[in-house]
């Protein structure tokens, strides 16, 4: 999600221009009574506007917020949107539209600007827009640092500080807070030189790192090079000098005070003026301040990647150095300003000998020990320190750590948490519960909160929100890992994360796993360097998650690492390795290599049967997996045996209404559906759904699968309204669990598209099936049996809509994929042969149609049996070919056999049965048996009307056949 802190500039600009959310929504082209909620979500970082809104939003910024004449601010704000919303940067064409007035959006509120005439203004006019470039300071100012020519970015922060310093309402002082090296002092220097001219009483800089030196720094402000309070000022005592300066600061004259590196609230309470015209800018690592101090905090974050590039480019302006090299360096340093300054200075000093690519390689090899991060150039000379602070990252970290007292209860806990946090993924928010789980026993929540706040206040942790404790910068984490001498902290993190990942994988809770995926990857990768049992366990859990979200290549790689380690540690026939074997088989299954997957499942089953015995729950799970792959390769008898064995075992262990039993009921229902035994399948499918719905916290993934398969069964039974109810429920859950582009979502959308096709809603069917095909292409690729099924379904829709050329292209492609991946003897291959037979029948090529249909019939008889409804369908198609060739007597036995099978398997009220009735009516009419023909045709018409509706193309065709026969 976007960073709400960076997007806060939108709120500040809107409020400064006195624009309401409703006005913003209208300016962006949004309509409706709740449009304001949408734009509010954009500002808060809770939603990203569509790219189609880009032009309207540019007009909103330019004219509603009056930034058309303030190009610097507009460009800075837009740079934020590029980074947070992924929008295209401003192009020359955009500026031309602004210049031509094409983006005007009607009446807008007048610009709000603080001026001398405004009673809340205390100094020179300073707009609610970007401060100007650095200008000379008022006489008597004491600012030790010159403007930094390398300063970049921070437009939102500059605007915020500039506006806040000119408010009269409390709090009137502002604290820029953040970890060491984040650029607080550099930002303060920039504010001094951009805004200092607006404070005629002068600007006064106080270094507060050493509290004992503050009185002398205050006294120095009153001398002849400062306020010139008295001619004999230099001869007065220090206490008297301080008293006079403090008295002057309480006058109404506007002055800007900078308290740099102020970490102690008592120091600020002692020296901060409580009245008068002074405004204070404080830099601190401390985030929280006592309520009696009139300060507002502004957390400072990392630079955006674009800002990091701009900063490095200031040091490396030569065009021979590519943006790509500098961006890679910025990424390695995680956009920390101090690290970027050191890197840029190091590169600039070594331009004749050091290329960015070589520097990047050195960084990656020894990130926490590179000389540049110790403030040393390639020749061993110290690098410049533009703010006068520590210029070595290790010094910055050590200084922050020195503020913790290991003897105190809170600080001791903070130290433990900090070293553990270093082993999580750097830069990623760490869930509080997960970090707490690394400690045994878990700390008291109040104590934990206090310790976490201490880490924020000493600048070691970037502040978090809600359930997250914050995050560590990767450079700080690298230094902190050195403190884990015995590896205890790393082991604690691995153990806690492994337990958490196991629970989430067991629940198939992909949203929760996605939230911690970065941590699971980072911790696993670090553990794999050791190559022990816990590394194997972590790698396996990570692979399970990656497989569930369609990242198959990574899933297989991590599973293989885990399998290799377990084979090495426990042996190739260990129970631990059997889990990896099953998962590898599942990956091949999901990738469509059903024959290749089967040996892995069979081997894992054999291991568990031998090691655990036939009645162990894990053996039952292995039997389930073996049944699933037998099902996939159309070995239905073996699949049913496996399923029934697994179901019996789970019922013995957990009972008939357990989630484990529900999984088997679902599989048996799906298997019986494939076998054409719809009536037998229905109780299993309904029971699976009922069990999941009775659970207080059901496994949403398995629940959605059961609902999907019940919908599929209703579709196969011709109960289309009921099918859509279940399929839409399944779709909603799957989109919630997996996101809209997961292959499981595609499976459900494919079923919905097929229902629309059967209902004659061709336009809706086309939209759904095309979306499904695009989804499968993106998620699992074109060379996959499931993708080929979607392609074939779209081909049949094209055939029905008269696009025979498109239908042929898609059906032939689907057949080719199924033959190559599944082989000739698979039900999917038979279906494509059957469909190509129908295509050639439509072309009038009876010979080719007969060839395809006979090939399909042979496969279907062998796999599905002679009584299956799909076998009956192919028999019927062959009969129609004979009928259309003028051979009704030869056609009649085939059509009669098809009807008998459909009646036996599907009953009278099914579209397939209706089609067989219609064909029998047609063949009887051709044979002159008009009464018998009318009976068949009227029965077909009644079924079509009842199931599909009076306006369905099949119903209309049945009316036409009846009229012709009569």
Question: How would the blueprint of this fold be written?
Answer:
Blueprint: H1 4-16, H2 21-27, H3 35-44, H4 54-64, H5 71-85, H6 92-100, H7 155-165, E1 173-177, H8 184-195, E2 203-207, H9 214-220, H10 238-249, E3 255-260, H11 265-271, E4 278-284, E5 295-299, H12 305-315, H13 323-332, H14 337-349, H15 356-365, H16 393-401, H17 409-421, H18 432-436, H19 445-457, H20 474-481, H21 488-506, H22 510-528, H23 533-548, H24 552-570, H25 575-590, H26 594-612, H27 617-632, H28 636-654, H29 659-674, H30 678-694, H31 700-716, H32 720-738, H33 743-758, H34 762-779, H35 785-800, H36 804-822, H37 827-843, H38 846-863, H39 869-884, H40 888-906, H41 911-926, H42 930-948, H43 953-965
Parallel strand pairs: 1-4, 1-5, 2-3, 3-4
Helix pairs in contact: 1-5, 1-7, 2-3, 7-8, 9-10, 12-13, 12-14, 13-15, 17-19, 17-21, 21-22, 21-23, 22-23, 23-24, 24-25, 25-26, 26-27, 27-28, 28-29, 29-30, 29-31, 30-31, 31-32, 31-33, 32-33, 33-34, 33-35, 34-35, 35-36, 35-37, 36-37, 37-38, 37-39, 38-39, 39-40, 39-41, 40-41, 41-42, 41-43, 42-43
């Amino acid at each position: 999600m976007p960073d709400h802190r960076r997007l806060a500039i939108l709120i500040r600009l809107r409020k400064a221009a006195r624009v309401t959310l409703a006005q913003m929504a209208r300016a962006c082209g949004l309509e409706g009574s709740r449009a304001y909620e949408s734009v509010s979500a954009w500002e808060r970082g809770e939603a990203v506007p569509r790219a189609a809104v880009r032009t309207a939003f540019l007009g909103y910024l330019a004219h509603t917020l009056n930034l058309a004449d303030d190009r610097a601010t507009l460009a800075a704000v837009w740079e934020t949107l590029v980074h947070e919303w992924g929008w295209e940067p401003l192009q020359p064409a955009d500026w031309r539209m602004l210049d031509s007035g094409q983006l005007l959006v009607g009446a807008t509120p007048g610009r709000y600007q603080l001026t001398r005439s405004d009673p809340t203004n205390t100094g020179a006019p300073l707009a609610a827009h970007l401060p100007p470039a650095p200008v000379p300071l008022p006489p008597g100012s004491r600012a030790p640092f010159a403007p930094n020519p390398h300063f970049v970015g921070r437009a939102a922060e500059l605007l915020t500080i500039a506006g806040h310093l000119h408010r009269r309402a409390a709090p009137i002082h502002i604290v820029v807070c953040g970890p060491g090296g984040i650029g607080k002092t550099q930002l303060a220097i920039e504010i001094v030189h951009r805004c200092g001219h607006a404070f005629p009483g002068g600007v006064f800089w106080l270094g507060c790192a050493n509290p004992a030196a503050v009185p002398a720094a205050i006294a120095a402000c009153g001398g002849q090079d400062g306020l010139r309070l008295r001619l004999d000022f230099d001869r007065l005592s220090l206490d008297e000098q301080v008293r006079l300066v403090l008295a002057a600061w309480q006058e109404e004259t506007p002055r800007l005070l900078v308290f740099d590196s102020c970490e102690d609230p008592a120091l600020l309470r002692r020296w901060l003026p409580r009245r008068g015209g002074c405004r204070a800018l404080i830099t601190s690592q401390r985030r929280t301040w006592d309520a009696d101090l009139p300060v507002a905090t502004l957390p400072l974050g990392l630079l955006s990647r674009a800002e990091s590039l701009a900063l490095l480019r200031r040091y490396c302006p030569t065009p021979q150095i590519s943006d790509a090299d500098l961006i890679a360096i910025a990424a390695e340093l995680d956009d920390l300003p101090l690290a970027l300054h050191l890197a840029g200075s190091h590169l600039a000093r070594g331009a004749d000998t050091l290329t960015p690519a070589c520097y990047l390689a050195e960084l990656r090899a020894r990130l926490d020990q590179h000389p540049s991060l110790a403030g040393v150039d390639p020749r061993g000379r110290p690098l410049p320190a533009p703010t006068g602070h520590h210029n070595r990252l290790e010094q910055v970290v050590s200084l922050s750590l020195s503020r913790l007292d290991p003897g105190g209860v809170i600080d001791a806990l903070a130290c433990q948490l900090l070293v553990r946090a270093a082993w999580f993924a750097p830069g990623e928010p760490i869930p509080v519960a997960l970090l707490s789980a690394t400690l045994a026993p878990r700390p008291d929540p109040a104590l934990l909160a206090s310790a976490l706040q201490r880490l924020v206040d000493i600048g070691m942790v970037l502040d978090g929100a809600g359930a997250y404790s914050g995050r560590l910068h990767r450079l700080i984490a690298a230094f902190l890992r050195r403190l884990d001498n015995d590896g205890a902290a790393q082991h604690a993190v691995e153990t806690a994360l492994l337990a958490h990942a196991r629970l989430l994988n067991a629940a198939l809770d992909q949203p929760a796993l996605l939230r911690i995926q970065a941590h699971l990857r980072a911790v696993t990768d670090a553990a794999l360097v050791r190559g022990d049992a816990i590394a194997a366990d972590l790698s396996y859990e990570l692979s399970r998650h990656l497989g569930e979200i369609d990242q198959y290549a990574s899933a297989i790689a991590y599973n293989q690492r885990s399998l290799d380690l377990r084979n090495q540690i426990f042996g190739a026939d260990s129970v631990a390795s059997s889990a990896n074997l099953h998962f590898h088989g599942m990956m091949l299954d999901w990738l469509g290599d059903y024959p290749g997957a089967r040996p892995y499942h069979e081997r894992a089953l054999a291991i568990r049967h031998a090691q655990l015995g036939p009645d162990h729950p894990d053996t039952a799970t292995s039997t389930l997996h073996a049944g699933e792959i037998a099902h996939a390769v159309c070995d239905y008898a073996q699949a049913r045996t496996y399923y029934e064995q697994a179901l019996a075992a789970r019922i013995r262990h957990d009972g008939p209404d357990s989630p484990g039993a529900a999984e088997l009921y679902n599989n048996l229902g799906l298997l019986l559906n494939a076998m054409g035994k719809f009536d037998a399948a229905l109780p299993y499918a309904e029971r699976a759904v009922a069990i999941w719905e009775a659970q207080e916290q059901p496994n949403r993934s398995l629940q959605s699968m059961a609902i999907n398969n019940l919908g599929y069964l209703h579709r196969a039974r011709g109960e289309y309204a009921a099918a859509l109810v279940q399929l839409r429920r399944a779709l909603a859950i799957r989109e919630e669990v997996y996101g809209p582009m997961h292959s499981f979502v595609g499976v459900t959308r494919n079923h919905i598209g097929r229902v629309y096709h059967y209902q004659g809603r061709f336009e809706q069917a086309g939209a759904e099936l095309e979306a499904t095909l695009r989804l499968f292409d993106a998620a699992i690729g074109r060379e996959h049996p499931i993708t080929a099924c979607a392609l074939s379904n779209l081909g049949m829709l094209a055939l029905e809509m008269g696009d025979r050329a498109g239908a042929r292209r898609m059906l032939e492609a689907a057949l080719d994929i199924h033959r190559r991946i599944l082989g000739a003897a698979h039900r999917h291959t038979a279906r494509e042969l059957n469909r190509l037979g129908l295509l050639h029948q439509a072309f009038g090529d009876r010979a080719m149609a007969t060839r395809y249909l006979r090939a399909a019939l042979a496969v279907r008889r062998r796999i599905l049996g002679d009584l299956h409804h799909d076998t009956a369908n192919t028999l019927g198609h062959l009969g129609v070919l004979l009928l259309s060739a003028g051979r009704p007597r030869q056609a009649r036995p085939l059509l009669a056999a098809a009807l008998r099978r459909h009646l036996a398997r599907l009953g009278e009220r099914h579209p397939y049965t209706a089609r067989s009735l219609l064909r029998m009516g047609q063949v009887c009419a051709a044979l002159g048996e008009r009464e018998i023909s009318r009976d068949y045709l009227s029965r077909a018409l009644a079924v079509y009307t009842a199931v599909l509706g009076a306006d369905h193309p099949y119903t209309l065709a049945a009316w036409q056949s009846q009229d012709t026969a009569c």
